[in-house]
Design brief:
The chain is of the alpha/beta class. It is built from 16 helices and 16 strands. Helix 3 crosses helix 4 and helix 5 crosses helix 15. The structure holds nicotinamide-adenine-dinucleotide. One of its GO terms (biological process) is aldehyde metabolic process.
């Protein structure tokens, strides 16, 4: 594959832009066909993709790749195919009494060429689910996958290359430098998924062209356990969500807030649950490795920082294997009541490490959350009562799952995105279609209408009409 340069990127974009203008928006049938072929190809390449992701991670659970990387893409394409007719239909709107008897429509139109930048943690899902939305809305797309999962990126490039001509869907391979050059291209829309830190650079780069952006970023997603929650169930469900992909999930529970006095019970239940899920770590095909040596070192550093800072550390290693750093299997680790100054409370954990903090009152837990950057996800465990209503009303977060973790991501009818530092805009299902469409307002004027009376020379009729228009 040729090495990309700023010039080669610009010419690949120009090719797609010319084709978009030449061919116009694809029909309903073409879009449905694109989505169907994409879903079929992902299914047909599933084994290859599973192997590529696992090779990139060192070890990635086959089931987790199928569940969390491949299923969401196929489900998104199925959902879009099913609802596309309704989404594409022009929407009639009432133009208002003053413009009667004209008619008005909102005409959904593709934006043109969409850029998609994806991260490594779910390298199939986060490259292809935005592509589903872009194609459903009738766009062409260029995708820049993460350099940390190169085999997956190459497999995706090969699969998409066999499915779509270069002028319809293109894959750009390369590292952060290519990512930076990619975001400087004058796309009609850019969807970036990645860290908040890089998201800032992306927003600055896209500002030069006034390219509209959807930013799917990260952050610290809290998990609040109410005083009257079923602690056993809460700990078990948090363990599943936290240890999926070894915690390398943007909406993984980042830290737990629980009532004072319940920490030791939580530790016991979480340890039991994690042990049942992963009785061993090293040769366990279900337990995913940390993606790179640098990320492993960063996570080991978070634990060491907490240890030196005097926090109590609980390592869950049931088979006592003490996985060596070379395996990049990091044992599930709890950090109990870490101080705010510790790195594990300052940065997104993004690994199988879970800080556990206690609160004196539920209101204090909400204050704790509100004193920090608005998270991508928020989890609540407890009855659907006043505490839940308070939490929903008083906190701001990208999305919420109650009495479970992660699941709101899967519901195609729920827009997925962050708020403030955890992101801007949303996609999935209809929200994705709308994000990649322009709802073009069209007013159809009739032969006789009130505008005829609102023109110079202004006189009594205009005065009378203005009195009506300014009636308050
Ligand atoms: P990252 O920001 O380091 O990289 C993401 C992508 O951006 C990669 O393709 C990379 O090559 C590219 N890139 C790097 N520098 C760039 C630059 N200057 N300009 C443009 N592109 C550049 O993120 P990551 O480490 O791959 O992923 C982890 C982060 O992503 C976490 O913070 C996680 O929370 C977040 N994330 C968010 C979501 C979501 O849906 N909101 C999903 C998954 C991951």
């Amino acid at each position: 594959m040729a090495v990309e340069t700023a010039e080669s990127l610009a010419s690949r974009l120009a090719l797609q832009q010319r084709a978009f203008l030449r061919d116009g928006p694809p029909s309903f049938t073409q879009r449905r066909d694109n989505l169907k072929r994409l879903a079929h190809a992902v299914k047909a390449c599933a084994d290859q993709l599973v192997q590529a992701v696992s090779a990139d991670f060192g070890q990635r659970s086959r089931h987790e790749t199928l569940m969390a990387d491949i299923f969401p893409v196929i489900a998104a394409a199925r959902h879009a195919r099913f609802h596309l007719w309704r989404w594409m239909r022009p929407q009639r709107v009432w133009p208002g009494l003053e413009l009667a008897p004209s008619r008005a429509r909102l005409l959904p139109q593709p934006l043109g060429v969409v850029g998609i930048v994806s991260p490594w943690n779910y390298p199939i899902n986060l490259a292809l689910a935005p592509l589903v939305a872009a194609l459903a809305a009738g766009n062409r797309a260029m995708i820049k996958p993460s350099e940390l999962t190169p085999r997956t990126a190459e497999t995706l490039a090969e699969m998409l290359g066999g499915l779509f001509p270069e002028e319809e869907v293109a894959v750009v391979l390369g590292g952060a430098d290519i990512g930076a050059a990619f975001c400087e291209l004058p796309f009609d829309h850019l969807l970036f998924t990645g860290s908040t830190e890089v998201g800032r650079k992306v927003l600055a780069a896209t500002a030069q062209n006034l390219t509209p952006v959807t930013l799917e970023l990260g952050g610290k997603s809290p998990c609040v356990i109410a005083p009257d929650a079923d602690l056993t169930q809460a700990a078990a469900r948090i363990a599943i969500g936290k240890l999926l992909n070894a915690g390398q999930t943007c909406i993984a529970p980042d830290y737990v807030l629980l009532p004072a006095g319940k920490t030791q019970d939580f530790v016991r239940h979480f340890t039991e649950a994690a042990t049942a899920l992963y009785p061993s770590l090293l040769a366990n095909p279900d337990y995913t490795s940390i993606v790179s040596d640098a990320h492993y070192a960063r996570l080991a550093g978070l634990i060491e920082d907490a240890r030196q800072g005097g926090a109590e550390i609980v390592v869950i290693d049931p088979a006592r294997e003490q996985p060596p750093p070379t395996s990049r299997k990091l044992a599930p680790t709890l950090i109990l009541n870490p101080g705010d100054h510790l790195r594990s409370m300052q940065e997104e954990v993004f690994g199988p490490i879970l800080p556990v903090l206690d609160y004196q009152s539920f209101d204090a837990a909400l204050d704790f959350i509100n004193a920090r950057p608005r998270p991508l996800a928020l989890y609540y465990f407890g009855p659907e009562d006043l505490n839940l209503r308070k939490l929903l009303a008083r906190t701001r977060a990208g999305g919420v799952t109650v009495n479970e973790t992660i699941s709101h991501f899967i519901a195609e009818n729920l827009p997925f995105g962050g708020v403030g530092p955890s992101g801007m805009g949303a996609y999935h299902g209809e929200a994705g279609f709308r994000a990649f469409s322009h709802a073009k307002p069209v007013l159809l004027q009739s032969r006789l209408n009130s505008r005829i009376l609102l023109r110079p020379p202004y006189g009594k009729v205009t005065e009378m009409l203005l009195r009506f228009m300014l009636r308050g």
